[in-house]
Specification:
The chain is mainly alpha-helical and about 650 residues long. The chain has three domains: about 375 residues, no CATH class; about 100 residues, no CATH class; about 140 residues. Helices cover about 60% and strands about 5% of the residues. The strands form four sheets. Strands 5-6-8-7 form a four-stranded mixed β-sheet, sandwiched between helices. The protein starts with 15 loop residues before the first strand and ends in an 18-residue tail after the last strand. About 45% of the residues are buried.
């Protein structure tokens, strides 16, 4: 330590073990001891699970796939995901099976539990990345440079915007990322220390990857392995592995194929393997084919070059100097390990580029190996200490942008609480005070992290910044997520409108859903804990409400003008959630028989009018006049009436 500038570090010096290896990237770098490793593992676990629990289902992916897991748990269909009783044959159900198993063990279905499989697969991917980059323990311990790069790779990958989002939503992509990473890591272990059991483990993992998202899993794996073995001129090994893979793959997949055939026959098999696998990969000129999947997400060749930089943030700028360092003639990355990392990136990029369907999330399996390359470059750069102008600029710009964004989050929250309380303020004074405390904690952690990282950069231990920088970002993100989640949840939650519909169900009213969008069907079946009749908008809603028994239909608010034309002459009223959330305000419950008393609703006292119940926790009522316009309540029409009860005819 120079000139006492690192006195803060003195307390931790006892935790730094002697040299574990003499790799160039590790020169002068202290090794991590057990306590520091345990702290990093704990941070990785906590970060991976943060944002999973404590909020409702968000967005179309969460609600659609969460509704499928609910349906599978409640009704026992396992061969394929189902939503409201209808089979969803797009992909094999590894993620859904995991969700069903977790919910069955827990004895309930909650938002956090259906998101937990993706979080666990994300955590598993990051753990595998640490073990892969760190390498095996030698006689003197782990390679210090590789170990620091391993932790840097894990936190860089885990905090990338796209990876961080998809590891916290109910979707199959993270299961695919895990299976691809597991397969390539098992291959590398077998390649280093060949053995029948190790090779079989690779073949089994590569076969099981089919259940994550179909044939794309094996394609991504074998393209990476194939390029590496061709580069190493191991032609016989490649041919032998390919020949052994066929029977293992068939033994793994055929049982599900037979079960799917019994479930849906040849039509189901054709849709899964031809329409959804081949149809997405290739271009088809026959316009009579279904739009989805034959013509959906068909993008131009440069799609990933344009879109991926956004989703790799905040670390995008680091990729450019890292790529240059890896391909230049004087590159230090020339071992077999480095060749395998490069082969994994190149092989998967080749498959992604060859596919006619392109979506940013399809590139997620590349992230672990792409960030492994970045972390290895960063650790080597910090060890040699002679950055080029591009390397220096990219690191400084990235640090400045990350610090600015992290600082703006609490600042915007504090300002927004006063300027736009309708958007930012959640709950009463205690909740607001808790938000202010979290905002201060974020700012404090940001200042402390900046101080620690600057001091590290000025010390001989500067390669530790490769791990400490991304790890600090992950720590701050844990607190920042707790700060912003309540405000976001209020505006993205189906809970208030679903609670109003559940109140109707509790009083014997038959409730249907006036939309067939998967995201909405999944959300309402999940929250109402039952399958619902799905009605086509327009005539279907009008016909449903004409029955004499109490009925209600949940419909999108923006379809009300067209629905009112269809409902002319049909007595009906409206119920609306009073919660201020944007999403719940987008829905209205239409109830039949305006003369009947509904939940929290009384007759408006005039023809064609009905009072809108504003939902739990709100005292105000609003009523709709004959023309459908909203007005403030007047007179006795604003008083809450008795509960709506079933009326028998």
């Amino acid at each position: 330590m120079q000139g006492g500038s690192l006195n803060w570090w003195n307390g931790a010096r006892g935790r730094l073990a002697p040299l574990a290896s003499v790799s160039p990237a590790a020169a002068g770098v202290p090794a991590l001891d057990r306590r520091l490793r345990a702290g990093l593992w704990l941070l990785l676990v906590v970060f991976s699970l943060s944002g999973v629990f404590g909020h409702s289902l968000w967005g179309g992916n969460d609600t659609r796939e969460g509704g499928m897991i609910w349906d599978m748990v409640r009704h026992g269909t396992l061969v394929t995901p189902t939503i409201d009783g209808r089979p969803f044959l797009e992909k094999p159900p590894l993620l859904h099976w995991t969700g069903v198993a977790i919910c069955s063990v827990a004895g309930r279905v909650t938002e956090g539990l259906v998101r937990l499989p993706a979080a666990l697969y994300g955590l598993g991917t990051l753990a595998l990345l640490v073990l892969f980059v760190r390498g095996p323990r030698a006689a003197g311990g782990f390679d210090r440079g590789r170990e620091i790069a391993a932790w840097g790779a894990a936190f860089l990958c885990g905090t990338a915007i796209e990876f961080q989002e998809y590891a916290r939503i109910v979707l199959t992509d993270m299961a695919l990322v895990f299976m691809v990473t597991l397969s390539l890591v098992t291959f590398w272990r077998a390649y280093q220390r060949p053995g029948a059991a190790r090779w079989f483990a690779y073949l089994l993992a590569a076969s099981a990857s089919f259940y994550a998202k179909g044939l794309v899993g094996p394609a991504l794996i074998w393209s990476s392995v194939g390029i590496f073995l061709l580069w190493k001129r191991r032609f016989r090994l490649l041919a032998g592995l390919a020949a052994a893979y066929v029977p293992v793959f068939l033994l793994a997949v055929v049982p599900w194929v037979l079960a799917l055939d019994r479930f849906g026959g040849m039509a189901a098999l054709r849709f899964v393997f031809w329409d959804n696998q081949i149809g997405r990969f290739f271009n088809f000129g026959d316009r009579s084919l279904p739009h989805d999947p034959f013509f959906i997400n068909k993008e131009r060749w440069y799609y990933y070059l344009v879109h991926l930089p956004v989703y790799l943030a905040p670390w995008t700028l680091l990729l450019v100097p890292a790529a240059i360092a890896w391909v230049r003639r004087s590159s230090p990355f020339r071992t077999s390990f480095h060749a395998f990392v490069a082969s994994a990136v190149a092989g998967m990029a080749l498959v992604l580029q060859a596919s006619s369907a392109k979506v940013a999330s399809y590139a997620l399996p590349v992230y672990p190996f792409l960030f492994a390359a970045v972390a290895l470059w960063l650790a080597e750069l910090l060890a040699r200490g002679r950055p080029t102008w591009l390397e220096r600029w990219s690191i400084r710009t990235t640090a400045a942008v990350v610090g600015l964004v992290l600082g703006l989050v609490p600042a915007v929250f504090i300002a927004g609480t006063f300027v736009r309380p309708d958007l930012f303020r959640v709950g009463g004074r205690k909740e607001t005070a808790a938000g202010f405390v979290l905002a201060v904690v974020v700012l404090t952690l940001l200042a402390a992290a900046a101080l620690v990282l600057v001091r590290l950069l000025r010390s001989p231990a500067r390669p530790l910044v490769c791990a400490a920088g991304p790890a600090s970002y992950a720590l701050i993100m844990i607190v920042a997520l707790q700060l912003v989640t309540p405000a976001i949840d209020r505006h993205r939650s189906y809970r208030p409108i679903a609670a109003l519909a559940a109140d109707e169900l509790g009083h014997g009213v038959t409730v249907a859903l006036g939309t067939q969008e998967y995201r909405d069907v999944g959300a309402f079946t999940f929250y109402l804990d039952r399958r619902l009749p799905l009605l086509p908008t327009g005539g279907g809603v009008a016909s449903f409400l004409q029955f004499p028994e109490p009925r209600a239909v949940i419909v999108p608010r923006d379809e009300l003008p067209a629905l009112e034309v269809r409902l002319a002459g049909v007595p009906h009223g409206r119920l609306s959630a009073g919660a201020p959330g944007t999403l719940s305000r987008a829905w209205v419950i239409l109830v039949n028989g305006a003369e009947q008393v509904a939940t929290g609703r009384a007759p408006a006292g005039r023809e064609g009018g009905a009072v809108l119940a504003q939902g739990p926790g709100r005292q105000g009522r609003v009523w709709v006049d004959g023309g459908g316009g909203l007005k403030a309540p007047v007179g006795w029409g604003a008083r809450p009436g008795p509960r709506r009860a079933p009326k028998r005819y």
